[in-house]
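User: Study the shape:
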Amino acid sequence: MRTTIRDIAEKTNLSITTVSLVLNKKPNKIAKSTKDKIFKAAEELNYIPNQVARAMVRKSINIIGLILPDIQNTFFADMAKGVEKEARKYNYRTMLCDMDNDEQKIYQYLEMLYQNGVKNVIIGASDEGNVNKTLFSMIKQFNMNAVFIDQFIEDEDVSCVSVNNEEGGYLAAKHLIELGHKKIGCIAGNEYAKDSSERLAGFKKGLKESGIELEDDMVVHGNYTLESGSKCAEYLLKKDITAIFAFNDMMALGTMQAAREKRIDIPGEISLIGFDDILFSKFFPVSLTTISQPILDMSKKAVKILIEGVDKDIFQKETVLFQPKIIIRESTRKL
């Protein structure tokens, strides 16, 4: 059976109130020797705090719910690692909720987290656009504290941590232009996804500054998966192009696979640039030139905003926009 505070009280011959004050770290004037006695007994009896019971009293729990679109995408795996590492510094645990690219799961996860006393959540961007009125209504109904990461939301009173996607697209365009490329294809995300439209806008801006117009048939839309990148690349590789900008590294990897199957050399025949700088992009068959998002710093900031709001019991809207940078590797070359 689970060890309770009553068991520790009996073992130490102290009152339940005294034991509870010490183990729950409540303000008290209890002698250090008594505290040490309680902690020793708790260790000997393998006492584990009942977090759900605590939540019923505090109306919250020291757990951050992290809802991500697809943990198979290394970008979100890196995000989860960053959130979990930072949360531990504040004595918080992380409950990972993987939507597996099923948009309906976000509502199920919010309800599950609420039922288990979790009211602090970090929500990652989805290519399909999981940000809608229903989502915000649930967050408000459940009295949850939410920070959105990798997405920028203007119309709602929520905190967001993201990267300057338009600047990232602009950097990709300028790099390819500097290498002499003019015939360029794009593998974008969902056409309704804000991050994708921002990257595309920045890319078009960079091209336009050099007098290059991006034709509509040079832009194809994937869903940020390796498979969609491969499928989109099959279409673009039939075009008269010298370079491809994939809007994330997973689709860039899919492009490499499609090129290899067609015996098209990267970067000999096609230069390729991605977006994200996921951990293993440097270990792709050809190390990937990419636009880097500081995902660990973004994750750290999202946790900090959430925890500071909990500590102050005041949540004010905060928007943090990180700047991307280009990482030049072997997948792009000068014409």
